[in-house]
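Journal club side-thread
Mid-discussion, someone asked how the predicted structure for our own chain would compare to the paper's figures. Pasting it here so we can look after the session.
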Amino acid sequence: MTETLFAGLPNLEPGTVWLVGAGPGDPGLLTLHAANALRQADVIVHDALVDGDCLKLAKAGATLEFAGKRGGKPSPKQRDISLRLVELARAGLRVLRLKGGDPFVFGRGGEEALTLVEHGVPFRIVPGITAGIGGLAYAGIPVTHREVNHAVTFLTGHDSSGVVPDRINWEGIAKGSPVIVMYMAMKHIGQISANLIGAGRSPEEPVAFVCNAATPEQVVLETTLSRAEADVAASGLEPPAIVVVGEVVRLRPSLDWLGALNGRALAADPFSSRILRNPA
């Protein structure tokens, strides 16, 4: 059965690097290409968000190299990680660079791929399920719902220097995007909430934090823009987290399928027949 699953899939050749997304946590969210890479790679350079159960799919004898980056903690420099991939490939190894989520969605995959191009190293990109979609789905929150939004914005809560990006047009996003999904935003949620409220979003707009998404440790905090900073501080929750702002959060009492597996009664009318205010 296993050989049938992988029949016809590409070989990870010696001297080649595959940049692969592992999804938001649950090993069942790995793509076949990702699982195929794991069973072939000689060395797996993985980040901090890759679930340990995913790494159990590595072939016997494969070398695991940790290259995780966490805000506020000692982390390898991005350039060093990229050059390490070049070094391993030039040694004739089959190299798998495994990233949580999708390598091209706030995953620095583009930077690593450009370094490989610079040094003439062949590579392949394998997309993964990004946490901003898959992680929210595991919390029972869709990023789109036709009664709520026809647009969604994905943004990062901090730039390479660790502060809220100053190039984000908060007014444009606040007025034009009914749903906002934020990566790496928990640390700066106070400033971000103030930016959005100052740009016209309601202080009572629903917000959800999904921590350790799609893992057995997943925790969801529901709050509002005005209370987000205080509620996060009181909860003691820590990153990694996905943050979503918008009326789609109100769907969670109806779509929390993981909660239903544990006995939660789901509501048939999540909006209680209220008229939704679409900020876009």
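Post-session note: The chain has a mean pLDDT of 93.
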